[in-house]
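Appendix B, Record 12. Input sequence as logged:
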Amino acid sequence: MTMDVQLKMKDPVRTPYGIQKFQWDREKGQLKVAWTRDDISSPNSVPIVAMENRQLHVVGLKGGLWVMETMDWDTGETRAVYTLGPSERYNPIMLGLQMLPNGDPIFATFGGVIHLRLGENAIPRL
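Logged structural output:
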């Protein structure tokens, strides 16, 4: 993806939506869709699953704002949405989201490295 496309992600006409979780069906020997979310945007970064609390973390767009959304890995239901803002400073430019040992997310962007110190807003570990 080229830089000009990266910078146009917030345009509602260009913002892609939709993620799916696939599971292996041992009996049929094939992948099957576990859940689908058509309202989630993860246009240009790699989501991450934190298996210790079974959360999927995605950096994307909602209403023209960059957000980090956390979902239940098993059901796909939203657990939390952290609004980052409209600035391209939050655009993850095709890089992966990572989780620090304390559970804080960190990712690289056009504006540098973003470390979300969630503190009391953090989702409890299950």
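The chain has one domain: 3-13+37-121.
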